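Because showing beats explaining, we think one record worth quoting, sequence and backbone structure tokens together, and here it is:
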Amino acid sequence: MASPLSRIASSLPKVIRLAWQRGLRDTAMIVRKNIAHEFRWYLDRRFDRIHGTDTSDNIPLDVLRIDGENRNQGIYYEPTSTDLFRHMMAQLKPALRFEDFVFIDYGSGKGRTLMMASDYPFIAIIGVEFAHELHLAAEHNLSIYHGRRQCCKDLAAVHADATAYQPPAQNLLVYFYNPFLKEVMGKVLGKLAQASLDHGTRIVLLYFNPLSADVVESSGLFKRRQEIRLPHDYTREVQRRCTVYFSWPEAPGSAIV
């Protein structure tokens, strides 16, 4: 795989043409953003270079095999960066005993988040993915992954529509990286709410890029919320957020009214 420097060097003819067309100021801004983008993706792929896995890159859903009526309700595949996930978990750790929870990633893609979550002592780790090719990639990645920090060895990739998946009757830490649109979001939250009601379990939602936060907060499931401050992302003009929701009123954070 080409390094960022070699990829940037190969783009010099395009940069020269752009400077003629847009001027030096606009070109400098575009080049700076693209350099940051190249280095971000190079660092992001470090996970795969270390572990021999295949979890990187963006993949649109329209090139994947997806069965069921909700194929148009999903979002494109993009893995969570390793550093960002560790940052989120470090912020969450004071509020929870991870060993009391099952970790579930809805829209788990190729399974990177499952492997990263195994660095923490969860009861079990489950990924739910409805795209056939992504699910197969996740199964392969999980079969070869051996992390030095791995605490949890009970990892499973489930090929299922999120609205049909029945979560286990245990305390759950649910991870969303903006996995689907609002209609499916509402149905999934309904399943989680029913599971919590039936079994008296606690549910935590770690929601990165919470574009359907209004659906979450109107679901009636969560009583408290807490914002996680994320490092500045120089490759994005609009910074992404991360919100944690808790289903029990004694949890930390502000009340949801």
In short: The chain has a mean pLDDT of 85.
